[in-house]
Amino acid sequence: MATWIIGDIQGCHSTLRRLLARIRFDDRADRLWLVGDLVNRGPSSLEVLRWARGLGERLTVVLGNHDLHLLARWLGAAGAKRTDTLDEVLAAPDRDDLLSWLRERPLLHREGDVVMVHAGLLPEWTVDEAEALALEVERAIRGPEALELFGRSRRAAPRRWKAGLDELPRRQLALLALTRLRTLAANGEPEFDFTGPPLSAPAGAIPWFLVPSRRSGDATIAFGHWAALGLNLGPRHLALDSACVWGGTLTALRLEDRAVVQEPGVEGDVAARGGGE
Ligand SMILES: [Mn+2]
CA-based, 20 to 30 A from 256: which of 87, 97, 208, 233? Predict the structure, then answer.
């Protein structure tokens, strides 16, 4: 039995099928973790969702920003973006079943000293605190509060974390960090608009997982979301978004020995540029 973690799929079902064949994934014996962003930009979000839904207990998936955007569109809390490729999902006869299932997925998964999130953890959070916040926001996503959480502009979130934030700002900033964090500015504030590679980040900005005072530093964090960073492995971080949908590769990492297998993005899976993220 192996546990494989796969990076951001974003509707790249053809590439995914090749990768699963290459790692000889056995859906009766192996387990699979996905770092989120199963959908959008790529051509086959519906097929990816149906496949993921069908894996049952074999699959652990955390929600990414594109998965949340799909849920927000389904719930009527967000409109279509120009670069969305979600219409097929939203028109599917099994839409409600698939999206109800997606809505029940966690934002954080913890097993031993490994933690999986879509984007990152704020340096102020211990793993215990991050887990508690994720649970709180997951409950909100599953209930009527989801509309308020999704409907508010991310510009309305507080600039930085502090103890004692009110409920809605706390949940907004936690959701932003877990699903969109890449760098922190020199003044310690999370920066959610920068999408480029670390070397072109604004002066003084630092990738969240390299912040020396990070209070989750005793855990190994597996995540995706940062396509411009690419596959990046350290003793305490596993960055797995290798930009499949932008013409890069789809990455699988075997948790037991950190073996890495990469499948080049199939031509039909590559999105047109211009959408970002
Ligand atoms: Mn993402």
Answer: 208
